[in-house]
Amino acid sequence: MIHFKRLDHIQLCIPTGKENEARHFYTHVIGLTEIPKPEALVPNGGLWYRVADIQLHIGTENEVNKSKRHPAFEVTDIRAARALLEKHGVKIKEEVQVPGQVRFSFFDPFGNRIELLQKT
Predict the structure, then answer these.
(1) Average of pLDDT values for 43-59?
(2) How far is residue 96's CA from residue 14's CA, in Å, rounded to a whole number?
(3) Is 108:28 a contact under the CB 8 Å cutoff?
(4) What is the rounded average pLDDT of the residues 16-29?
(5) What's the per-residue H, E or C state across 40-109?
(6) Residues 96, 55, 46, CA angle at the centre, nearest 5°?
(7) Angle at Cα 63 formed by Cα 65 and Cα 51, nearest 5°?
(8) pTM of the predicted model, to two decimals?
(9) Among the listed residues 12, 11, 34, 13, the one whose alpha carbon sits nearest the alpha carbon of residue 24
(10) Which domains does the chain have, with CATH numbers?
């Protein structure tokens, strides 16, 4: 049996060469803090961010496969988060509501789905 301690990081992908566009979205639209990548990984491209106590790695690749893969982040004020995203014209996806939480997803400019939830 594997005993998991915590979620360390999530990786999403963007097309090669789109780091500036990703930096604008993740830093200026949704307000994440960029953190330095290890020097050995800098040649690979991409960006890293701090999200609460985990890391979000934005990698680069030539083709981005779309699937159900996504990170889900708990937030403290889901209404304010949604209002901010809508203000910036970010595409929102309604999710099936489940007991004990309110949730929705949104898409970054590269088609990555990100879920936000607030426990009730």
Answers:
(1) 93
(2) 27
(3) no
(4) 96
(5) HHHHHCCEEEEECCEEEEEEEECCCCCCCCCCEEECCCHHHHHHHHHHCCCCEEECCCCCCEEEEEEECC
(6) 100
(7) 65
(8) 0.83
(9) 34
(10) 9-119 (3.10.180.10)
